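Q: Fold this one first, please.
A: Sequence and structure below.
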Amino acid sequence: MSKIALVDDDRNILTSVSMTLEAEGFEVETYNDGQAALDAFNKKLPDMAVLDIKMPRMDGMDLLQRLRQKTQMPVIFLTSKDDEIDEVLGLRMGADDYVKKPFSQRLLVERIRALLRRQEAVSGDAVGAGPEAKVMERGNLRMDPLRHSVVWKGKDVSLTVTEFLLLQALAQRPGFVKSRDQLMDVAYDDQVYVDDRTIDSHIKRLRKKMRSADPDFSAIETLYGIGYRYNEE
């Protein structure tokens, strides 16, 4: 049973969503502000967190930033209906996905299940895990899905589930172009729609993390209007 942390200052959302998730077989912990959630997470982490952005004491952005200093557990943001800035900033800070308010609870459940499946696939725990679970080496890059580890020029790089899957997809075939649609298929289930901006934001953060290990990192090339390509160094 996966444990989901739901963090929102709207008690109606906490009550209704937690009831839905529990009915779907999840264990749910609820918090009405970011600080309360952080205090609990410092003692024991859940399997995934669903965070509202605008909250008292500590908002979702601040909470995510603190979480990413210690864990790459999956995070879904709940964003305002028309606030695209929240979506882009949240993804660039390390969220794996977002759902706009007001939202269908069925959609949220599907997003949660999809993200947990992606995490399972990356860790190699999925039944019948295939070649994607094997250690991959491409020049200066070494990826070990079973340990969810990425090493670039001997330095560890900590990636979220989504970032790991995107890098793995690109590096599997150096020199070949992956369109945004192809990368969406890798990182998201078929029933989950995301737009180009989502993939671009993940790639931007992925590059930033790789450059923190190597300021000269340039293996991921953008082909404007086409997609992305991994060039082996």
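Q: Good. Now the second chain.
A: Here it is, same layout.
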Amino acid sequence: MAKHTVYHIPVCPFSQRLEILLALRGLQDAVEFRVVDITKPRDPELLRKTRGTTALPVLETVEGQILKESLVILRYLDEVLEGPKLRRSNPGEHAVESMLIAKEGPFTMAGYVYVMNQDQGQKDVHNEKLLALYRDLNDFLLTHNPDGVFLFDDFGLAEAVFTPVFKRFWFLDYYEDFELPIGDDYARVKKWRAACLKHAATEQVTEEEILKLYYDYALGAGNGALVDGRNMSSFTFEPHWKTRPMPPRDKYSGSVSDEELGLVVANAGLGPAPTN
């Protein structure tokens, strides 16, 4: 039976949204995922399909239609796959979850700009900007479900959108010593974030994996770009991330070597890499 195909980066938060949806439906095999190595030039055939764009994930429908943008793909799969939809069926509730989802873009951008910042003197500025966005989320949740855990009664579309970002922000905890303060301004969003992070349908990635693969982001090099003085990207598939040591937490002192990061294969005959 023909399947929709998703071209993706396994550790990408925007791809994980789709994986969460499939896990919630029990339909993990309903979509074929094809891995793209972002440390190498894009396959010309994939570029032909996407008309030259490189952003991932991209979905190719059974009919050959190409869909871009993770939120578009997420909503499409939510509509066409079997089973109850993740989005709220009540129009008013769906409007509320859509308003919350609209806040994800600036939130995600603030966290990524923060971790990629190389000016230690600007750290407090980035920290406060992200905290302000957390306070805004806190206020939204207090307005629409003050005593609940999720936005509504259970893990839904908004949670599928935000949870991968919460998991990627482990890199802020590690490389920037970021933490949410104690107090009413953060209590509701903190409860929401904790419930999202521990949900059984969101276990596609681990904290160790995020911290190791996103090390180069902490040094200002995103999407498989090379850090000055290094020959290997922390996003490389080999050696497998499980075999590598934890990266140093002090990002502002510059990168350690490929060898110190465990990115150099000492003996090519050691056998297959561990699986996820």
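Q: Anything worth noting on the second one?
A: The first strand starts at residue 4 and ends at 8.
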